[in-house]
Amino acid sequence: xxxxxxxxxxxxxxxxxxxxxxxxxxxxxxxxxxxxxxxxxxxxxxxxxxxxxxxxxxxxxxxxxxxxxxxxxxxxxxxxxxxxxxxxxxxxxxxxxxxxxxxxxxxxxxxxxxxxxxxxxxxxxxxxxxxxxxxxxxxxxxxxxxxxxxxxxxxxxxxxxxxxxxxxxxxxxxxxxxxxxxxxxxxxxxxxxxxxxxxxxxxxxxxxxxxxxxxxxxxxxxxxxxxxxxxxxxxxxxxxxxxxxxxxxxxxxxxxxxxxxxxxxxxxxxxxxxxxxxxxxxxxxxxxxxxxxxxxxxxxxxxxxxxxxxxxxxxxxxxxxxxxxxxxxxxxxxxxxxxxxxxxxxxxxxxxxxxxxxxxxxxxxxxxxxxxxxxxxxxxxxxxxxxxxxxxxxxxxxxxxxxxxxxxxxxxxxxxxxxxxxxxxxxxxxxxxxxxxxxxxx
Length: 442
What we know:
Blueprint: H1 2-17, H2 19-56, E1 61-66, H3 70-74, E2 81-85, H4 90-99, E3 105-112, E4 115-118, E5 121-124, E6 127-130, H5 134-137, E7 142-145, H6 150-155, E8 159-162, H7 164-170, E9 180-183, E10 186-194, H8 203-208, E11 216-219, H9 220-227, E12 230-235, E13 238-243, E14 248-252, H10 259-273, E15 280-283, H11 285-328, H12 330-338, H13 343-379, H14 405-431, H15 435-439
Parallel strand pairs: 2-13, 6-11, 8-10
Antiparallel strand pairs: 1-14, 1-15, 3-6, 3-14, 4-5, 4-9, 7-10, 8-11, 9-10, 12-13
Helix pairs in contact: 1-13, 2-11, 2-13, 2-14, 11-14, 13-14
């Protein structure tokens, strides 16, 4: 025991004598560990953010969307006015409700209007008639006010619930609650504002096909009575119109385990009514959720492997410095051997030094990596405020990070092992020197 303690003391004393060299030797390990943890945290944070966006849409949901078929898109070539009819119908909706009575919810959406207007402000319509169940089906949360109610449906009230971006862009300085907003020529009273749905530009936006923060929801009964089924849009001197009875349909499965089986049955029912589903698209968030998990795992592995190269470089750096140290301390090794130290003692001393370097470097690297990972999550969203460089960054820019225990443990363990493995060769080379030759070394 005393022998081991003496070896450790000698190793630490030698490292203290060369503080700068010891730090520079450990720097490769420090940076390697920090890079592994930071890369893993960015990958994990991005994965969790993407999965959260998909889960916000409901992992038990089955989304059916009316889609304009290619032949409808070209049907009006050469005509100044034409109407395209496609997509889900109310008969389809009635059949699905009759065939799947055990569904937790079946929520239709009906796209209405060509524009949303407030005074001189206007934007392309993302207004939908729907039912109160939509809020719970796709996990919408209210920032203030209320959502649609069954009373609104029964009484066909002209009320609206607007998304966070509609509130921000159309009412930049005013509280939208109680204000009026128009869909084409029809005025609606705003009764609720939705919390931001963090899927703009992310996996969820690709899934839905639009940014939900620009949605505007009105009662389905009002949408059918006021706007009908036909939407008019003027393009390039011609007036085109689309007739769609049901734009989207959310079907909520009783459980996650039954989603895939229900989706197959729903597809079979729809194909029996419209072979090949030319004007209907089915989207299953759970299917995309599993695919996103697989993709995220792959990228995590790639990012961590790339960062792991830094650890390899750090290990090579330790070996180079220790080899140089062997040459520098040849006479010291000869004296120790002459005084009775065995080759095993010499090996132990050099292994202790490399072990200390890699362990301390690993601990510092863990601290730096965790600190950097946490800092990035707060720093990146604030880059647009920085002087000179702020103009190059968007206000919506973010970099979600999530430090995981496995990345810390793996990075530290690999760093320690790398240092020890690369320190063994210099230790063996030092121990293999002939004591007489070593004593003659200048």
